[in-house]
Amino acid sequence: MSEAKPVDQTAEAKPVAITSGANPGATTGEAKPVVITSGANPGATTSEQKPLASLSEGKPAASVRSSSKRAKRGIGLAVVFLITGLASAGVYRMRQSGPAANLPTAPARKGDFSVIVRSRGELKARRSVQITAPVNVPDLRIVWAAPPSSPVKSGDVVIRFDPSSAKQQLQEKEATLRQAQATLDQQLAQTRISGEQDQLDLSTSRYQVEKAKLEVSKAEIVSALQGEESKVDLGISEKDLRVKEANTHLHAASNDSKTASLTRLRDHAQADVDLTKQRLSQMEIKAPLTGLIIYMPNYSQGWMNAKPFKVGDQVWPGASVAEIPDLNTLEMEGKIEEIDRGRIALGNDSRVRIDSLPELIMPAKLGALSPLTEQTFEWPPTSSFRGYSQIQKPDPRLRPGMNGSMDIEISRIPAAISVPSKAIFTRNGKPVVYLSGKGAYHAVEVQILARNPDEVAVRGIDAGSMVALVDPEKKDRKQ
């Protein structure tokens, strides 16, 4: 057997060229080789390692490891850039292949198209009755009131005022009436007594006159002296009779005057009592009709601090305290612009919508139009006509003052194709819609027949076509 040759630990090491990570695109010839000794004895000292080749004297081993790390980092960045590019290309292809699934669409509908004029407004009652405080009742104060906006029936008590002052006045007036009646009764009794006495005196005087006449008639059979005396007595008796008659008339006139005066005082006291009783009966106010009670503003504290009347408020005589609208006469009062006034007419059909009840659509008729424009208190001030649509079947949930809108129908197009207003776009100055088909959208020029706030009647597309509600071209440019 041949003798085995020992392996030399210091065998020649092959130089390896490592390129700098700062310029990964450089050629191999530009790289600076670094001498690496064979690592059979990693624990050997530097003096024991013998480099075979060195292009750069004195370069430490740490720089070699740093260059290796930079090279690995460059390769990693390249891989990341490659993955990002592939992902972007995939997303772009997905957007190009499936835009129809991403944009909102709506179908084109075929049917009767109603051309409308839409106006905003609020509900009002055509018939309403105000509740006013008593006119001739002072010191009115509310002690009870029906809850605001509560339903009431005709004849129900809705407001009560404090009756204590009226009751006290009634007691005083009744006492005055009793005193006046007693004085009158006393005067009537005195008049009867005086009249009877005057009649007695008058009868006595008449008797004396007749007696004197009888004595005078005896003048032919008695002496002349007695006849003269009888004549004198007759004259005196006649004068006394005339005096008694005058006194009787005087006493009767005086008694009649006193009686009339006391009767007037009694009647005045009776009128005060009746008035006080009437005021007391007005301490309760009843509903004149069935409806909803709405309290009016109380301006006693000024216009800026006006609040609806409530329990404890002082009410001046004749003040409008509340209002009861007839819910069966509700109508929508809307503002109609001057440009639309000539397009509508009385009797047009309309549809009423309420903001707080979006599911409710009520048929109505345009029953009245204001002849002149009315100024609003908004800023800037505007002028508009007023239209009143009478609701045919009011919903029990409706209340005066609710905000809403009414659509007044001015014409109708039968068998029309309609699309949402958002589906109409302008391209080269002409109206177009974007139809969905084969994974993409294409613009189709249409003719506008009529336009409403929400829908547009068009010609140029078929019923059931899916139209885009967003401009695809603008969306692509944004993306």
Description of the molecule:
Helices cover 33% and strands 30% of the residues. It is an alpha+beta fold and 479 residues long. It has 4 domains: 20-96; 105-124 and 326-478, Elongation Factor Tu (Ef-tu), domain 3 (Beta Barrel); 128-160 and 286-325, OB fold (Dihydrolipoamide Acetyltransferase, E2P) (Beta Barrel), CATH 2.40.50; 164-281, Helix Hairpins (Orthogonal Bundle), CATH 1.10.287. Mean pLDDT is 80; it is low at 1-60 and 96-101.
Question: Any chance you could write out the topology, listing elements then pairs?
Answer:
Blueprint: E1 16-17, E2 33-34, H1 62-97, E3 105-107, E4 109-125, E5 128-132, E6 140-145, E7 151-152, E8 157-161, H2 164-216, H3 224-281, E9 284-286, E10 291-292, E11 294-295, E12 297-298, E13 307-308, E14 314-315, E15 320-325, E16 330-336, H4 338-341, E17 349-354, E18 357-369, E19 374-375, E20 383-391, E21 403-420, E22 425-427, E23 430-437, E24 440-445, E25 447-451, E26 455-459, E27 466-468, H5 472-478
Antiparallel strand pairs: 1-2, 3-27, 4-16, 4-21, 5-15, 6-8, 6-14, 7-10, 8-9, 11-15, 12-13, 16-20, 17-18, 17-21, 18-20, 19-20, 21-26, 22-23, 23-24, 25-26
Helix pairs in contact: 2-3
Give the total of beta strands: 27
CATH class of the largest domain: Mainly Beta
Measure the end-to-end span: 81 Å
Number of domains: 4
Summarize the structure.
By secondary structure, the chain is α+β, with helices and mostly antiparallel strands. The chain folds into four domains: 20-96; 105-124 and 326-478, Elongation Factor Tu (Ef-tu), domain 3 (Beta Barrel); 128-160 and 286-325, OB fold (Dihydrolipoamide Acetyltransferase, E2P) (Beta Barrel); 164-281, Orthogonal Bundle (Helix Hairpins), CATH 1.10.287.620. The chain has helices spanning 62-97, 164-216, 224-281, 338-341, 472-478; strands at 16-17, 33-34, 105-107, 109-125, 128-132, 140-145, 151-152, 157-161, 284-286, 291-292, 294-295, 297-298, 307-308, 314-315, 320-325, 330-336, 349-354, 357-369, 374-375, 383-391, 403-420, 425-427, 430-437, 440-445, 447-451, 455-459, 466-468.
